[in-house]
């Protein structure tokens, strides 16, 4: 196999690209983060005795102003625990059709939790409306699954969700005795972008899941937050699903380091993503809607250069220089803490070369 071949969808690369825009999950723990991890106090977390995990849980509960938090291995498990802790078998979750919970978690809530999912079509900027939700809540009738939970997401494809709409949904949920869960994998991007306190963004939500392993740069881990009784149920479910870890404070320490050091700098990613978009617009035939670049993501159509075949796509061209972009159309470019301004300039030069080469 060619050392720099580009994989087809679902396969992995056979090289480690120096500059990787596929996701902010590709960030690697920095030397300082690794040093901090190596000093972490640890204990058996299934007994609740890992000081680093306990500290992280307290830190996130405070940050989001919730009663309690739970450290979990992944965002997918965090969402699954939330759905299973809120819903019984046969109860229904109302969720946006583009949201991770509905489309990217292998149907786990249905497979493992026997939870029914009703999807609503999300707007171009990723939100669902209170009006849509109101129409979707099932009446109390033996024909229907019982609507129990509404699942929101923020940010969605880099878009900060409109707070007024989220709050209107939360008010509606309260009136109709439903709960609201927020998949806040990238909630901190929304908080930094809008200069809001994360607690304010979460005020009306029953539970929130936060990823430490995306833009915040930890190697693994998410934190689920909510009321004490909700977290107690989620904790039991975490054990049931095999997510009870032991001396995992070594990983939680990375999360503490990330929250202490990598939050404010998210605005650098947002600025760099915007810069990337403005510079792409100077390369014919590319065109990026600048208004759509709100946080750390941009979506770009990269047509084949004139006279090139599918085998000569931009993605394949770039990988030979150690630059990796996804092969989806449109292409999602994610800027994160392992991408510098000079990486972006190098990438822009390579893209320019692709479109100018005769
Ligand atoms: C990445 C992501 C998750 C899941 O996190 P994993 O740690 O990859 O399981 C959930 N929701 C959203 C919006 C995400 O981007």
Written overview of the protein:
By secondary structure, the chain is of the alpha/beta class. The protein is built from 14 helices and eleven strands. It has helices at 31-38, 51-64, 75-86, 100-103, 108-113, 130-136, 163-175, 187-194, 198-202, 228-240, 249-261, 266-280, 314-319, 341-356; strands spanning 19-20, 68-72, 91-96, 116-120, 146-153, 179-184, 207-211, 222-226, 297-300, 323-324, 331-334. Helix 6 (130-136) runs parallel beside helix 7 (163-175). The chain is globular and about 65 Å long. The chain starts with 18 loop residues before the first strand and ends with a helix. Pyridoxal-5'-phosphate binds at residues 74-76, 79, 100, 153, 183, 185, 211, 213-214, 222.
| Cross-sheet strand order for the largest sheet | 2-8-7-6-5-3-4
Which shape, going by the Cα principal axes?
A: globular
Radius of gyration: 21 Å
Question: How many helix segments?
Answer: 14
Low-confidence spans: pLDDT under 50, at least 5 residues? Answer: none
**Share of β-strand residues:** 5-15%
> In this structure, how is the largest beta sheet organized?
7 strands, mixed
Bound ligand species: pyridoxal-5'-phosphate
Fraction of residues in helix = 25-40%
Given helix and strand content, the structural type is alpha/beta
Summed over residues and divided by their number, the pLDDT gives a mean of 95
Please give the alpha-carbon distance between the first and last residues: 27 Å
Tally of extended strands? 11
What is the oligomer described by this structure?
single chain
* Order of SSEs: EHHEHEHHEHEHEHHEEHHHEHEEH
